[in-house]
């Protein structure tokens, strides 16, 4: 993934399809289209997977809440969505086995009747999964529950155990981008769409873009343009056709991160109902635990959403009946906020965002010729991409069919061999056990190559921070081969330290700054500017969440 070479391709070639937005849907479309033989361009004004797609609950699921609502409201559309999600769950677990794995979730209940209700519901959920190999739900005794999740409330009656999937969302998206690259896709991050150029009939013929690092403007020529910008889709739609009505109903969801001291388990916890009718998940993530999410309307798309004080309080209040002890606000280590791309039907009465179905639509603006992939959710990204590329092929007069159900993502092959090699080399080179496991889980079949690069210099074999498994050499690898341009690209998305612990992310940034400076040929002034910018961002997060005793402590 050489950014300079890719920029040259984007500026000088003509493509069948140009995709705007490189989150889950854009990356999924790129892989689908390229694997069908289309010549594809992929751009994003931020890093790959920088927005909504990297701020999920990290679950691959059909949607327990959707199933409950489907039966309560006799809503076949919600039931259909659950079935789609469960079918795709199996595919995601198969296509990236290093990044996606089964996860046990425990739903605590406080009465026999409540236990029966959730056990029947989750048995039905498992039934719709149609024998995908995950263990069946089980009704656990109070004793078994306390053994599996030390720290859960002592006054529970019992719990219901079921299985879904968990995954590394940002790296899963990156693996799709990398695999699309193997099929010939030209891609670049930090390329912003400025405007469309149209012919005399008003049809889009090219996109005017700016390289946000080189500060140069260029055109991308393509036969078809596809808008995959999630909650920001209306901006691109209106750029193509000013008279179009708004379709997106953005909704904000947040998560908090805290110590495993409060939930000592590798199982996740499902809180089945909150005071506003949602569900909240509590799940382990690396060295910490994350809990979320919320659902509130969000209107200021010009600003990055952040975790706010009242949202921290809401999540802690939600956790309180289910845990023996909850963290204090000052014990929250980090958090993250994302925007769901909820889709409203045209000219429909607006509803509460939590009741809008997270289904998808492929919209075609006929005069401008712009396709937009609207709505949807992470688990069904592949079906969304298939529908979008089917429409692209129809418009281009091509007959190729979707191949992605059987395509292993980048790093998804030779896992056993990679694990053996990493353990052998790691033991010889003094690499800790947790780091070896991290390398295989993160890079899959590419882990030996990453480790060999780390071994080129003694400094690169050392951990960035002692309590986390990440190596200094991973920074080098990410810059050279994963198009990392900023501290945040690495700390938030290549590894996930930023969403786990803001204080330690700042310390890590200071440690890795010299590597960034050398690998990206920064001047001393550019290094200091980048450090100041990232530190200010972290301080902004801390102040917004108000997780220190006195806001003036972070200024």
Oligomer: single chain
Largest sheet: 10 strands, mixed
State the end-to-end distance: 38 Å
The gyration radius over C-alpha positions equals 23 Å
Number of strands: 18
Question: What is the beta-strand fraction?
Answer: 15-25%
User: Which blocks of ≥5 consecutive residues have pLDDT under 50?
Assistant: 348-357, 550-555
Alpha plus pi helix count:
18
Averaged pLDDT: 93
Outline, from the CA principal axes? Answer: globular
Give the class from helix and strand content and strand pairing: alpha+beta
Q: How much helix, percentage-wise, in residues? A: 25-40%
Name some characteristics of this structure.
ten-stranded mixed sheet, 18 strands, 555 residues, alpha+beta, disordered C terminus
Structure summarized in a few sentences:
This protein is an alpha+beta fold and 555 residues long.
Question: What does this 3D model show about the protein?
Answer:
With 555 residues, this protein is of the alpha+beta class. 40% of the residues lie in helices and 20% in strands. The chain has 18 helices and 18 strands.
Blueprint of the fold:
Layout: H1 3-12, E1 14-20, H2 24-35, E2 40-43, E3 59-60, H3 64-72, H4 76-95, E4 100-109, H5 112-128, E5 138-141, H6 142-148, E6 158-167, H7 169-182, E7 186-188, E8 191-198, E9 204-211, E10 216-227, H8 233-240, E11 251-259, E12 268-271, E13 280-285, E14 288-292, E15 296-297, H9 309-319, E16 334-340, E17 360-365, E18 370-375, H10 381-396, H11 415-429, H12 433-443, H13 447-454, H14 472-481, H15 487-494, H16 497-500, H17 502-519, H18 524-545
Parallel strand pairs: 1-2, 1-10, 2-7, 4-12, 10-18
Antiparallel strand pairs: 3-6, 4-6, 5-6, 8-9, 9-10, 11-14, 11-15, 11-16, 12-13, 13-14, 17-18
Helix pairs in contact: 2-7, 2-10, 3-4, 11-12, 11-13, 12-13, 13-14, 14-17, 17-18
